[in-house]
Amino acid sequence: MKMDAVKQNDVISMILDGLADRGFAIADQFLPDSILENLFEEQKLLLEEGRFKEAGIGRGSEHSVRQEIRGDKILWFDPENLSPFQEIYLFKLYDLKSRITADFFLSLNDIECHFAVYPVGSLYKRHLDQFKGVGARQISCILYLNKDWKEEDGGSLRIYYDVEDREKYIDVLPQWGRFVCFRSADIYHEVLKTNRERYSITAWMRK
Ligand code: OGA
Ligand code: NI
Description:
binds N-oxalylglycine; binds nickel (II) ion; about 25% helix; four-stranded antiparallel sheet; about 25% strand; alpha+beta; seven-stranded antiparallel sheet; single chain; 3 helices
């Protein structure tokens, strides 16, 4: 096996261990820098073209835009029309998905994915990614595309990792190339108010 393949295997094993032991995992070497650069360039271009829409909360008839609760703008990947770099990222996610399926006997079918940008001053209050009564989303995955993010930039992802104790959390900076995933049904989380424009790609593995 080549060195890179060994390293990548370690990253995946570490993610699987995290999901099993704590319900979440953080990996800083999920994708090579060149791919990150291309995804970031693509995201900025699509944003300039005005393709992003205000994200909403709730589902179906309960769907609404409430920026005091959720202030990001998103653009869904179009499965019929993926860019080469979107394909590469999704390929990695499908690879991870097959390892999760094998290890946890979870049946996961597809993956939905969107770019997200949080404008200065925006946030996303504490929530679960599963809609009430709809358990399709099983694993949430977020990739961050922000160079040199500092503590004072705010915008951390706050993960409430203890289902029994809602005071327990960790704050994760949305650092360049950082990949975070967690169990969508159990893990409450929020995005703290950001003081800098904040870029990411969010995906869900679905049942
Ligand atoms: C979400 C979400 C967290 C983040 O899109 O549901 O919680 O850090 N995102 O972007
Ligand atoms: Ni969420």
